[in-house]
Write a structure and sequence with these properties.
about 450 residues, six-stranded mixed beta sheet, five-stranded mixed beta sheet
Length: about 450
């Protein structure tokens, strides 16, 4: 993904006294708060229909090789002082129940040309629509990794034409990409994880780009990844990246749709007739680079379409690694504690038996079982286990009273090594079937975790 910053046509108002003094009138349309259309359609002379943002390749005054144009503009001293003194934790609490439009308006009002919207080419196009509705100038950026889907590149072009903006892109360092590919090949992430490739193609370009800003706006939502994003505030001091002034604490991160559900985002996009990436109609929900993104299947969480060969903890590319709390998940994807995000266990229904270590060991030893068993190996903190909870419980209800026993075994923490060696645990969740009159369990090979697919698997082995 490449860093790009786009300025809206409304940027032509920047510096206009009439624009600064006039306050937008807010109206209510259904559940959507919108600004008066008369305010959005103020006349523009042709001489003023130009971007207020300098070209991305303008000469920078900092040591970084590529810096967004905002780095060349100095903020008023009072803005810097206010940013340093602001208690963003209290502001986040104040805005917790605010609408995305209100939060977006507040962000753009505070930072003007020194804030930019992060656009990945997915449903976060909603951020651009919210920015447009405020009537304020706004900028958009994206990261072009060089490995995005063709559909995503076409979508970028469509968005630019729809909004009359130019997205400014930040590309990875060519020599770093060359060294990585020459030494490890084009698909090294399938062997040793995606972090190194993401660091070269995404994180470092983003780091360079953000040093030219004082704030940025992301499309993170709490429901996207219960394991890493469940507690994100609507605004925060960025815990990882640095802004224009340098040092941790010099950049503010806004998450206007943090409290919005994915379904509500899509309702908004349809209501406003906003263009969307054509990959969404093919089953893609979370969209990243082409080799590391795929459509999700029934019963799967949306983030399971990303880096599916890795454990749940690795489902962040590094752009939002501040979401991962120290001590919550260790490097192997194990929970260090024994409570998941919501403090509750999974699959808690009378029709799903809870197996202890002794119980699963006894089941392994039985060679002449009278009944077959279906067992899910899970971790409560794993968002993909959480994502299949409903279908697994429904399956158990359907099989209640039949010859098939449905059970669960918590396989994280101290039990993970045992589960890997004895129960064929790969990543969470893993489903295994103990056939009647057979000692060795059979691992469910598919990632389709809907009820019908699981029933077909059981029926084929009974």
């Amino acid at each position: 993904m490449a860093f790009s910053v786009a300025s809206s046509s409304a940027a032509a108002f920047h510096g206009s006294s009439s624009f600064e003094q006039q306050q937008p009138r807010v109206g209510q349309v259904g559940g959507l708060q919108t600004f008066d259309k008369g305010y959005l359609r103020l006349p523009l002379s042709s001489s003023r229909r130009r971007s207020a943002v300098k070209p991305l390749n303008a000469e920078a005054k900092r040591s970084e090789g590529i810096v967004p144009s905002a780095a060349t503009a100095s903020a008023p001293a009072e803005m810097v002082d206010k940013m340093e003194a602001e208690d963003y934790q209290n502001l986040a609490l104040e805005l917790e129940n605010a609408s995305p439009l209100e939060i977006m308006d507040e962000a753009l009002k505070r930072f003007g040309n020194e804030i930019a919207i992060a656009f990945s080419g997915a449903e976060d196009v909603a951020l651009i629509e919210y920015a447009r509705l405020t009537g304020r100038p706004f900028r958009v950026f994206s990261l072009d990794t060089g490995r995005l889907n063709p559909e995503t590149y076409r979508f970028f072009d469509q968005v630019e034409k729809h909004y009359g903006i130019r997205i400014e892109y930040m590309f990875p360092d060519a020599s770093e990409v060359q060294d990585l590919v020459r030494s490890k090949g084009l698909f090294s992430f399938f062997e040793d994880g995606h972090q190194e490739c993401c660091r070269v193609r995404k994180v470092r370009p983003l780091r360079r780009a953000l040093k030219g800003l004082r704030a940025w706006i992301t499309g993170q939502r709490k429901d996207q990844s219960p394991g890493t994003r469940s507690e994100i505030p609507v605004v925060q001091v960025d815990p990882v990246f640095e802004g224009l002034d340098g040092g941790i604490g010099s950049l503010v991160k806004w998450n206007p749709v943090a409290n919005v559900k994915g379904n509500d985002i899509w309702s908004f996009l349809r209501a406003m007739n906003v263009p969307v990436n054509s990959l969404h109609s093919q089953g893609y929900i979370s969209i990243g680079c082409e080799p590391c993104t795929r459509a999700v299947l029934p019963g799967q969480h949306e983030r399971e379409g990303r880096w599916w060969w890795e454990d749940a903890k690795a489902k962040e590319c590094g752009l939002h690694k501040g979401n991962i709390k120290e001590g919550y998940v260790n490097g192997n994807g194990n929970s260090n504690g024994h409570a998941h995000v919501n403090g509750a266990d999974l699959f808690t229904t009378p029709n799903v038996m809870n197996l202890t270590r002794i119980g699963i060991e006894n089941l392994l030893k039985l060679e002449g079982r009278e009944q077959p068993w279906l067992v899910v190996l899970y971790a409560p903190w794993c968002e993909f286990c959480q994502g299949m909870e409903e279908s697994y419980v429904e399956l158990a209800d359907k099989l209640a009273g039949s010859s098939v026993k449905v059970a669960k075994f918590r396989a994280d923490g101290d039990e993970k090594a045992f589960a890997q060696q004895q129960l064929q645990l790969g990543s969470f969740p893993t489903i295994i079937f103990f056939p009647k009159h057979s000692a060795r369990p059979i691992r469910y090979p598919s990632e389709k975790r809907d009820v019908d697919s699981l029933l077909a698997f059981i029926k084929a082995l009974q």
